[in-house]
Amino acid sequence: MKFKILLLxxxxxxxxxxxxxxxxxxxxxxxxxxxxGEVIPIIRPFVGTDGTVTGMNNQLIIKATPEDIxxxxxxxxxxxxxxxxxxxxxxxxxxxxxxxxxxxxxxRYSSGNLNISAGIAAERGTGGGIGLQDEDTGNIQYRLNxxxxxxxxxxxxxxxxxxxxxxxxxxxxxxxxxxxxxxRTIQGVVVQDTVEYHDATTGFYVIPNLSADVVTLxxxxxxxxxxxxxxxxxxxxxxxxxxxVRLGEWIEIxxxxxxxxxxxxxxxxxxxxxxxxxxxxxxxxxxxx
Length: 289
Fold this sequence. Notes:
Elements: H1 2-15, E1 25-30, H2 36-43, E2 52-56, E3 59-64, H3 66-79, E4 85-111, E5 114-118, E6 127-134, E7 138-162, E8 167-185, E9 188-211, E10 214-226, E11 234-238, E12 241-246, E13 250-265, E14 269-287
Antiparallel strand pairs: 1-3, 2-3, 4-5, 4-7, 4-14, 6-7, 8-9, 9-10, 10-11, 10-12, 13-14
């Protein structure tokens, strides 16, 4: 008999709702600017261990204590606001400097039946030369030529988006590349010409998140350019990074520097060529509203 009474008490306790369930309240909260998927991960810690939060589109369904619901509403005041409109600018600065020098000696000597000549006089250019000439025996020429050129190529890309929303922009063109293939058949050799198009584009993908006047961006800028000479090769640059920047400030998010040096020596001449290339990528975020 005693065992039956204990078992009955246990079943009654197991079937009865928790004592604190009466304190939970169900409420539907409409959202103004955010959707439920954005907000739920943020407010879930505020509903307590016994509370629940679900939702769809622009509505939240919360089951929690009145105190926890009040805390959630306070959080929503700060996060369910009109998204700020942003302008994101990515700039690619490319500079290339080429330097060269050439010095040579050329001469001719003649005496009677003997004629001797050596070297080829350098073409006229920036620099100077020295010449010695004798009407009877010939002449000797020394020339030094220097050259320097700088090219700059800057490109800007701008896109507008809302904070927290992804954005993408791309510009450029398709470059045709011709190729020729020859293969043998029973009728003879067949030559086939084909044209393939390759993208030469510049752009970036970005997701900005704003806190006060500081923007955190997950950004992936890219650039594909035809190599000098248009010989079918491309220069490709890709960056993937997360950065923080204050509104209105420029920051550098990537770049590189390349150098090349070439020297040629002849019997009576010497030629040097040096090339440097800089490429820097900068970013700026501005608020439009």
